[in-house]
From TrEMBL:
This is YolD-like family protein. It comes from the Bacteria.
Length: 118
């Protein structure tokens, strides 16, 4: 606690600084943003490529039951991308996949894994 007895004004003498509490809202939002970005950073080597028949089955189930799913897509040999949304249409060559407010066309052969999101 800082000694403010030198001041002639009672408002200054009685002021209690909240310290870091006044910055807590700022740090919490920054921390949450950083945590969300860290969740999306995934090592591509953690995933085993699923069989195409299994992928098609899971995609069709997600489409028919209108499930929200998480897709892990291989962009390149060492880079992946994660999409969360609902399947809009499944074709033999590609899947049209809904991600938040935009449509994504994703090739089935680039899908690494699929899982349901609660």
């Amino acid at each position: 606690m800082v000694d403010r007895s030198y001041s002639k004004f009672p408002e200054i003498r009685d002021y209690r600084d909240r310290g870091m509490k006044k910055w807590q809202g700022f740090f919490i939002s920054e921390h949450n943003t950083a945590m969300k970005q860290d969740k999306l950073k995934v090592n591509p080597d953690e995933f085993i490529q699923a069989e195409e028949d299994e992928i098609m089955l899971l995609l069709n189930q997600a489409f028919l039951n209108e499930l929200q799913i998480k897709l892990v897509i291989r962009k390149s040999d060492d880079d992946i991308e994660i999409f969360i949304g609902k399947v809009i249409e499944v074709t033999m060559n590609r899947i049209i996949y809904f991600k938040t407010s935009e449509m994504q066309k994703i090739s089935i052969d680039k899908i690494i894994s699929i899982e349901e999101v609660d």
